[in-house]
Specification:
The complex is a heterodimer of chains A (665) and B (213).
Chain A lengths: L1 H7 L2 H14 L2 H5 L5 H27 L3 E5 L8 E5 L1 H24 L9 H20 L3 H19 L6 H32 L17 H16 L8 H7 L2 H25 L5 H24 L3 H28 L3 H36 L10 H4 L1 H14 L6 H15 L12 H24 L16 H19 L1 H15 L8 H36 L23 H11 L1 H4 L2 E3 L14 E3 L3 H17 L11 H19 L1
Antiparallel strand pairs in A: 1-2, 3-4
Helix pairs in contact in A: 2-4, 2-6, 4-5, 4-6, 5-6, 5-11, 5-14, 5-19, 5-20, 6-7, 6-11, 7-8, 7-11, 8-9, 8-10, 9-11, 10-11, 10-13, 11-13, 11-14, 12-13, 12-18, 12-22, 13-14, 13-18, 14-16, 14-17, 14-19, 14-20, 16-18, 16-19, 17-19, 18-22, 19-20, 20-21
Chain B lengths: L1 H20 L3 H22 L4 H29 L11 H21 L11 H18 L3 H20 L7 H29 L14
Helix pairs in contact in B: 1-2, 1-4, 1-5, 2-3, 2-6, 4-5, 5-6, 6-7
The chains are: A mainly alpha (665), B mainly alpha (213).
């Protein structure tokens, strides 16, 4: 059947066409007179194209083939190859899935009737962002890669500043723009060095490069900075929290769920060039990864803004993935195949998992923000009663992201733990075991962060008038969320499936893995995991049924949460979001420097007082902003060149040209 | 045919001097229009016949010779400005500078490593001299409209250079150059409108009040 399918159409061509269709989906909307029709048309086009793209990527992934197309361009940068190998095909999956879900979600979340000035641009750039990410994964010419990379970065910028009339959105946009262009500058260095080494702009083939060759370390470093800035690895994460918080929610879902992964893809792709990466590279990645994970989640715990919390947790997840890559790389350097296998499987599967539960959570936050009109968790509460379905789906996402069985987040972290604990019996590199408790700490903090998020938003009673009358989300918003929740559950209950999905990408990263029996060995372990997950689910279902049966027997009266039998309970006796996390935050006060202004209370009946707290963006506010200020002061003399006299600007160009002409002699 | 082309190029150089020396805005717009028409004829003189060439000729003559000058004349009329150029630098010094730069560009072009079949023509020196003139107009004239004229002359200079390559030049580059021109004109059109609305004059030196503090 497969060969018949392949005879009928080429999956690579389907993926390519699907990518292009995504990019064009928003164009008709720009010209249609009737508001909203463009949005619906875009969703109608995007969803089938994405489904075809997913099918094609799956076919490509499992056929272990590499399809190559050559783009005819008249530019002097050599041939422009578009290649889909298993690694690209694997990364294509989230691109298609999340763009389809987001375009459907937008219909309910950002309806043209309410946002008629911004909807067209939003739909257009959404398609462009999805399309550029899909094509980026196929690009194998450095110059073309940079072009598509910039299209991706800029369309994300335009999506981010959709509500540009707000000051904080514009500020987030500027920070993002600076961060992404610092990354792009590093990528210019990267591709120039690569081209200088290989003599062409085509990206080198897998395993064709020695890390001992000159400039190899510089190439790796510039890739780490350039791609790391996009992925949000600390300390290049500064743009991430404000950008994700201020973008419309389905855009945050796409940015966090997929765009960050493009940075990780770049790191993966770069690492494939080298057949002998030194131990140092793996160590750097591991340390950077675990630091991002730990500090990312610590920052998440401190947040009051629900989308900022999710964004900080993206830093954490990218950190976990980077740790996985680093561990795998250490395995490659020390020829420890098991470590490579488990590190890679953990990292790749976590990439896939994160692109399921993070969009789910961001879409959920979109529904909540849509209903309450605020992102401040201290003002929400009790929303679970008004929107039970959203609350359920959000809970599935939260459980998954905390890495709790039987959901998918557990599977990928479990693989990583297995790899780390394996090192206990190893002859060398035993100290890698120490990463396991750190990872456990990250997991624990994640539980605090998401308990805080879930309980302060959905449980209790409303803390402000904004949260009093929530309405259940429409079908267009629920369906994408339910879809991601199902995927989370699917990978959680059938982890073999996940392992099966990542194995082609793993062999294309490290071909020696194909000849080992590791896949079978861990397939069995995953089978056990699957069985125990199923049992756990069954037990939970049984307990829930029993509980409901018991409730049904006795009469139930409902009272407000935290009512506690008092006559006049008030919503303000509840734990607020900030008070819930205060203890955890105080532990990390050394790095977080939370600003709390507490009132001085004295006497038996103190009067009304006001307390407020704000989390600090430590790295941005303590390091980057002062650095920029210093740079601004010390280069102030250059400002004199910018005097506003257009003629003199022309004169600058003229003089430069003249000097060049004289120099040519 | 080639000698005719060379004579036309001399004409182009003379028009450069007219642009530098005249004090009337409308007159300099017409001079640029004539320069554009001459440039439109030139490709036909040096390359064998092809439909591609006809296309280029027609487009160049219409755009450079008629459309843009008409737009500029209308801008002058509608902005109701004084019809003088008002240079920063007097006419005689600019003319002298123009002469110096033209001489220099001949000297420079003589030293460029060129294909033997291009060696004896005036294309390269004329191109560089025209670009220099464009820069001179851009730097020494005060009004936004003269700035547009400067851009046009600069673009003409680039175009003369491109003539040598008209056959090898992919259509993309041509389109790119035309796009440049279009964008330049548009931007300047917006600038003209905005300046005249904000400051009720077209003096670009007033733009300094827009600079970031």
């Amino acid at each position: 059947m497969y060969s018949a399918l392949q005879g009928a159409f080429d999956p690579a061509l389907v993926a390519l066409v699907a990518a292009l269709v995504l990019g064009c989906a928003g164009i008709p909307g720009l010209f249609l007179r009737k508001p909203g029709s463009g949005q619906i048309l875009s969703a109608l086009v995007t969803i089938p194209a994405s489904l075809a793209g997913v099918a094609a990527s799956l076919l490509l992934l499992f056929s272990h083939t590499t399809a190559t197309y050559v783009l005819q361009w008249n530019l002097p940068f050599g041939p422009c190859d578009l290649v889909i190998d298993p690694l690209s095909a694997f990364f294509l999956l989230p691109v298609f899935l999340v763009s389809a879900a987001g375009s459907l979600f937008a219909l309910g979340y950002w309806p043209a009737a309410e946002h008629h000035t911004t909807e067209r641009g939003l739909t257009f750039f959404y398609g462009l962002l999805s399309s550029s990410m899909a094509i980026l994964l196929m690009a194998r010419n450095g110059v073309f890669f940079i072009m598509v990379w910039e299209i991706m970065a800029l369309s994300a910028y335009f999506l981010l500043v959709t509500e540009h009339e707000r000051e904080d959105v514009r500020r987030a946009g500027i920070v993002y723009l600076i961060a992404t262009h610092v990354g792009t500058a590093a990528l210019f260095v990267y591709f120039s060095l690569l081209a200088a080494q290989t003599g062409s702009f085509l990206l080198p083939a897998a395993g064709s490069f020695s890390a001992l060759s000159p400039f190899a370390s510089l190439i790796a470093l510039s890739a780490f900075i350039g791609f790391g800035a996009k992925a949000g690895i600390m300390p290049m994460h500064i743009w991430l929290p404000s950008a994700h918080a201020n973008a419309p929610s389905h855009v945050s879902a796409l940015m966090s769920g997929v765009m960050l992964k493009m940075g990780l893809y770049g790191i993966f792709r770069t690492l494939t060039y080298f057949y002998d990466p030194p131990l140092l590279w793996g160590t750097v990645l591991t340390v950077a990864g675990i630091t991002s994970a730990l500090f990312g989640i610590a920052f998440a715990v401190a947040q009051r803004d629900m989308k900022r919390l999710l964004a900080c947790s993206s830093i954490e997840n990218v950190g976990i993935i980077t740790t996985g890559i680093g561990v795998a790389l250490i395995g490659v350097s020390s020829h420890n195949t098991t470590l490579v296998y488990l590190g890679l499987a953990g990292a790749l599967l976590h990439i896939l998992n994160h692109s399921f539960f993070k969009p789910l959570l961001f879409l959920g936050s979109g529904v909540v923000i849509h209903a309450t009109g605020t992102r401040e968790m201290n003002l929400m509460g009790g929303l679970g009663k008004g929107m039970p379905r959203v609350a359920l789906l959000f809970m599935i996402g939260s459980v998954a992201i905390c890495g709790i069985p039987p959901l998918n987040g557990f599977v990928s972290e479990f693989l990583l733990y297995l790899g780390l604990f394996r090192q206990l019996n190893a002859d060398s590199l035993v100290y890698l075991v120490l990463l396991a408790p750190l990872l456990a700490l990250v997991g624990g903090l994640a539980v605090i962060a998401f308990t805080k998020l879930y309980s302060s938003v959905f449980l209790g009673t409303p803390r402000s008038s904004a949260a009093v009358h929530p309405h259940e989300a429409g079908l267009t918003m629920l369906v994408p969320m339910a879809f991601f929740a199902l995927l989370c559950l699917l990978i959680g209950v059938a982890p073999q499936l996940g392992l099966h999905l990542v194995s082609p990408a793993m062999t294309s990263f490290y071909p020696e893995l194909a000849s080992t029996g590791l896949a079978a060995e861990y397939g069995v372990i995953m089978g056990w995991l699957s069985v125990s997950g199923g049992l756990l689910l069954a037990a939970a279902a049984l307990a829930a049924l029993l509980w409901m049966w018991r409730l049904g027997k006795s009469g139930v009266t409902s009272a407000p949460t935290w009512g506690c039998g008092y006559q006049r309970g008030t919503a303000r006796v509840q734990y607020g979001a900030s008070s819930f996390s205060e203890l955890a935050v105080s532990v990390f006060n050394g790095i977080m420097r939370q600003r709390i202004s507490r009132p001085k209370l004295a006497g038996l009946f103190p009067g009304a007082a006001h307390c407020c707290e704000a989390p600090t963006e430590t790295i941005l506010e303590r390091i980057i902003v002062p650095l920029f200020t210093i740079a601004g002061v010390s280069f102030a003399f250059l400002r004199r060149l910018q005097h506003g006299q257009m003629h003199l600007y022309m004169l600058y160009i003229f003089v430069t040209l003249f000097i060049f002409m004289l120099w040519a002699h | 045919m080639i000698s005719l082309a060379d004579q036309l190029l001399v004409l182009v150089l003379l028009i450069n001097f007219i642009l530098l020396g005249t004090s009337r805005l409308i007159f300099s717009i017409r001079a640029v229009a004539v320069q554009g028409v001459i440039l439109g004829i030139l490709p036909g003189l040096i390359h064998p016949f092809s439909w591609h060439l006809v296309g280029i000729t027609v487009v160049i003559i219409t755009v450079k010779g008629f459309v843009i000058p008409l737009l500029l004349v209308r801008a002058v009329r509608s902005a109701e400005i004084k019809r003088e150029v008002e240079p920063f630098l007097g006419y005689v010094p600019t003319l002298l500078l123009g002469a110096v730069f033209t001489a220099l560009s001949f000297g420079f072009a003589g030293r460029l490593p060129m294909l033997p079949e291009h060696q004896n023509f005036m294309f390269v020196p004329a191109s560089i001299a025209t670009m220099m003139t464009g820069f001179l107009v851009l730097t020494t004239r005060r009004k936004a409209i003269s700035q547009v004229i400067g851009y046009l002359v600069l673009e003409n200079g680039i175009f003369i250079f491109g003539l040598l390559l008209a056959e090898a030049m992919p259509i993309m580059v041509e389109v790119g150059a035309l796009l440049d021109l279009l964008v330049g004109t548009f931007v300047m059109g917006i600038v003209i409108n905005q300046i005249s609305r904000e400051f009720s004059s077209l003096d670009t030196s007033r733009l300094t009040s827009l600079k970031e503090e």
